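Before relying on records like the one below, remember that each one covers exactly one chain. Contacts with other chains, cofactors or solvent are not represented anywhere in the record.
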Amino acid sequence: MSNGSNGSNGSDGIESRLKEDRRFSPPTPFTFRARLKTAAEYERLYKQSLEEAETFWREQTTDLVFQRPFDKFREWLLPHAKFFVGAKLNITESCLDRHLTTDARTRAAIVWEGEPGETRTLTYFELHREVVRFAARLADLGVKPGDRVAIYMGMLPETAVAMLACARLGATHSVVFGGFSAEALRDRINDCEAKVLITQDGAWRRGNVVPLKKMADDAVAQSPTIERVVVYRRMTHELAPVTMKEGRDIWWDDLLTHTPSEEALARAKKPEGFDAEHPLFILYTSGSTGKPKGVLHTTAGYLAGVHVTSKYVFDLKPSDLYWCTADVGWVTGHSYIVYGPLSNGASCLVYEGAPNFPDPGRFWQMIERHGVTILYTAPTAIRAFIRWGDDWPNKYDLSSLRLLGSVGEPINPEAWIWYQRVIGKERCPIVDTWWQTETGSIMLTTLPGTHATKPGSTGKPFFGVHIDVVKDAGKSCDANEGGKLIIREPWPAMARTLYRDDARFKSAYWEQMPGVYFTGDGARRDQDGYFWVVGRIDDVLNVAGHRIGTAEIESALVSHPAVAEAAAVGKPDELKGQALVVFVTLKSGQTADEKMKKALGEHIDREIGKFARPDQVRFADALPKTRSGKIMRRLLRDVAAGVTEARGDTSTLEDLSVLAKLRGDEE
């Protein structure tokens, strides 16, 4: 693994670029209404969260529902931690029941829009009712506390209902992203030994029907632990014909027509309290070995983390309509569509389809039509918006927006500036957030009414996060010195283990840098305490003795007016050790030719230095991405090295044809 010392060894160009220090203070009207208004307030709370952690978390979780309070805040025996020890709770009481005696009872919990354009709204009262009804029926299907239930659905209100119903019964849910193949679904079901699968007949994606039930059938045929399959009817039979297996499969609506037993109804109406460390969900994330990792999150600590981060990072107000554009099949959807916002009584917009269907104005049209106030999306989506042109967002009234957010990967400064200028109209603060599936909740960010923001920096540590940038030996780096991003102490929302693979949990996260959690990312902390995450340590290249972070190369390329998106990777080179290969997607109307390659090389010369000029520039209509929008650089490294077959797990890849085309392109 790379030593992560980005920008050292004579890389003066990178150092000068990394030290770019544009600042944007929070707009005064925003700060006036913000939950936190000054840096001094942040510093006071941050200090308390580290030095008086129990007091901090007790105060910050007073609005959550505990059936039994905790005896001890934390127990820590490397690498395992427990939080809120001795507490009992049912997470759905914090997300649903507690709102029924407040003004939130009639507030929209979920505002849903389907890709064809239909809309539906569930208030907190209605969402609670649907969760209770479905939980009672699941109980009658035999679902008990500790059972695993797989959920393979698209972006529907019923997906959240299914998750919450499982949690209400104490069943551990494992949501499998609806873009995964039957093989990927099978592997995840079999690893967690799920008892029930909840799916739907089909889902819309760019005007086409994704046959989820057909893929579910293929998976379940090789999944012996599945006893029942519940199918939600999203389509007409003509659009999504399905085969129902008698004795195993049941339609969602038919299940709800069954009168539940008294015992099941009692369990659903007055939910049991579970131990603070009761497993809430298993979420699988791709591993470098090709075997997905089942990240296990428990209940009280996870709830505390997502509840408090949602409250402060998004500055949630009862008047907000908050839109996180992630899929619920990823951790962002779990934490910041379902559990975090609902525990705060927020109104959440949920959209079923693609951002460019039927045209690239779909997001902006929805913001105008629904009056969205908070938008939380990914840098990859932002770069796609840039590529499609300013005319699309400029056609719509975006004046309802008051806060913008970024999640998923480092956002390059040029994309940040575009987001702030074109979408936020220079009046919306941007919260850039760094966190991971394994961390459960946001770890680094700027608080929107408190901190000045710096394009490209993910900000400061969130409350309770003892984070650092260190050298190989574990010593803290100096200001503006690149190193490894680590977390020194456990935090409430952290993953407790990898399901059925605790040895891998220890080796992957706690033994790379002994005694601390190693994030796998490279970073630096500047003179003001702001963190700059530059990407995975294994995305730092050693080119002829120069340490070059691929994130800096990509940011430099995207700052060229012709470039929409770029990915930089290394390939083995006998002379240099590694040669630098960049894959570039140009904006509409630009010409991919030798002249453009030369122009981009010269641009790198100016932005970083001649030592960083790419050995190859390869143009691509599209880059290989997961459905969540992350570029799969591992696959690009294989393409650059001439590997003809994909290695490792490719089940998250959105479009295999992109990869095939890249392999077939001539230099």
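The CA atoms of residues 590 and 596 lie 9 Å apart.
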